[in-house]
C-alpha cells in the first residue's frame, strides 16, 4: 500500500478505523523530510496491512498545531486508536523495521488498561 494524504477531515477516522496507522508530518521545503520520504514509502510498500498517512504541515496547519508538531519530520504511530510512538527526525530503514515489529508485538490489552488508568487519575486530579 502506498501512502495516503491525511487532512483534518480524515485524520481521526483513519486513526480510529484501522489497527495500525503511521503518520508522517512533513513539508515540501524540509530537507530531512525529503530524505525520509523514500524510506517511508518503501516501508509502506512492504507492510500493506498498515496505513501509512502523510500530513503536509503547510496545507494542514491547524491539524499540525492540534498535534503539537514543533519540528519535522515527526512520525506518530497509532495502534487501535492509541498513540504508541512519537518522534521527530528522520528514521533509517532498519529503525522503521524495528519500530513496526515492536508495535505489532504490543500487548494492547495492557496498553488500553494503562490509558484507562491514566485517564482516571487525570479525572480524579481535576476534581
TrEMBL record:
It comes from Euzebya pacifica. Keywords: Disulfide bond, Electron transport, Redox-active center, Transport. CDD domains: TRX_family. Residues 1-105 form the Thioredoxin domain. The keyword Transmembrane does not apply. This is Thioredoxin. GO terms for molecular function: protein-disulfide reductase activity. InterPro entries: Thioredoxin, Thioredoxin-like_sf, Thioredoxin_CS, Thioredoxin_domain. One of its GO terms (cellular component) is cytosol. Belongs to the thioredoxin family.
Amino acid at each position: 500500500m502506498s501512502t495516503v494524504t491525511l487532512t483534518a477531515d480524515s485524520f481521526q477516522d483513519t486513526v480510529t478505523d484501522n489497527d495500525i496507522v503511521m503518520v508522517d508530518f512533513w513539508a515540501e521545503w524540509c530537507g530531512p523530510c525529503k530524505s525520509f520520504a523514500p524510506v517511508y514509502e518503501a516501508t509502506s510498500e512492504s507492510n500493506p496491512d498498515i496505513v501509512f498517512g502523510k500530513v503536509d504541515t503547510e496545507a494542514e496547519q491547524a491539524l499540525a498545531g492540534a498535534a503539537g508538531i514543533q519540528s519535522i519530520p515527526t512520525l506518530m504511530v497509532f495502534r487501535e486508536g492509541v498513540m504508541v510512538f512519537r518522534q521527530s527526525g528522520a528514521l533509517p530503514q532498519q529503525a522503521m523495521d524495528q519500530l513496526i515489529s515492536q508495535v505489532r508485538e504490543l500487548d494492547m490489552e495492557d496498553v488500553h488498561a494503562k490509558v484507562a488508568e491514566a485517564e482516571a487519575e487525570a479525572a480524579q486530579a481535576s476534581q
